[in-house]
Amino acid sequence: MREEDLERILVSEENIKSRVAELGQEIDAFYEGKEILLVTLLNGAIVFTADLIRNIRSPLWLDTLRAQSYGSGTTSSGAPEITGDLRLPVEGAEVLLVDDILDTGNTLSRVVAELGHRNPASIRTCALLDKKERRQTDFEADWVGFEIPDHFVVGYGLDYAERYRHFPYVGILKPEMYS
Ligand code: IMP
Ligand code: MG
C-alpha cells in the first residue's frame, strides 16, 4: 500500500489537477503569447512540470537544471549546488523557473541570481508548494500552487531519499520514516 508511510494526504490528486490548470491559465495570461523558456529543477519538479506545460498554450521551450540542497535528509543544507547546465540560451529569453516546493528559498533565489547574470529578458518563478514559515530569505515566487504548513511532504515529484516521487498526491510523511 502506498499510504502506509504517510500521516495523511495533504493535497489530493483532484485539487492538484484543478490548481495546475489555473496556473497554466495565469501564466498564459501573463506572457500573452510570448515564447517561454521554461527551466525545471530536477528531479523534484518533473511531475509538476509535466502537468503544468500541458496547461500552457504559449509557445514554450523546455530545459532542465539540477540544484541540490538536501542530500538524503529532511532539512536544507542552506547552500544549494547547481549542477548540470542549460542547453538553451538564456540571453534575451523569457525565463520561467519551476520548482516543486519553496522552503527556505535558498534554491530558487540562488538559481534566479545565477541565470540573471546571463541577460534574460525576464525571470519569473513558479512553485507547486510554498512553506512560508520556513523562509530564510525574502524570496517569493510569482506563482504558487498551494501554501502549506511546515511538514515534510512527499509525492507528486517530492521525495524522501529518492522515494515516493510517484505518488499522485502530496502527503505528509510519518516522522518515524525519517527519525
Ligand atoms: P529550499 O532551497 O530550502 O527552498 O528548498 C527547496 C528544495 O528542498 C526543494 O526543491 C525540495 O527538493 C526540497 N524540499 C523542501 N521541503 C521539502 C519537503 O517537505 N519534501 C521534500 N522535499 C523538500
Ligand atoms: Mg528539489
What keywords describe this structure?
179 residues, alpha/beta, three-stranded antiparallel β-sheet, 3 helices, 9 strands, binds magnesium ion
CATH architecture: 3-Layer(aba) Sandwich
Class of secondary structure makeup:
alpha/beta
Using the coordinates above, name the CATH class: Alpha Beta
Helix content: 10-25%
Query: What is the makeup of the main sheet?
Result: 6 strands, mixed
Mean pLDDT across every amino acid position? 94
Strand runs, count: 9
Across the major sheet, the strand order is 4-3-2-5-6-7
Instruction: Estimate what percentage of residues fall within beta strands.
Output: 25-35%
Topology order in helix (H) and strand (E) letters: EHEHEEEHEEEE
Low-confidence stretches: none
CATH topology label: Rossmann fold
* Alpha carbon gap, first and last residue: 21 Å
How many domains, in number, for the residues? 1
Ligand identities = inosinic acid, magnesium ion
- Helix run count: 3
Shape: globular
Radius of gyration: 16 Å
Give a verbal description of the structure.
The chain is of the alpha/beta class. It has one domain (13-151): Rossmann fold. Helix content is 21%, strand content 30%. The chain has three helices and nine strands, in the order E-H-E-H-E-E-E-H-E-E-E-E. A six-stranded mixed β-sheet has the order 4-3-2-5-6-7, sandwiched between helices. Helix 2 (46-53) links the parallel strand 2 and strand 3 (60-68). Helix 1 (13-31) packs across helix 2 (46-53). It starts with 5 loop residues before the first strand and ends in a 6-residue tail after the last strand. Magnesium ion binds at residues 41, 44, 100. Residues 41, 44, 100 line the site of magnesium ion.
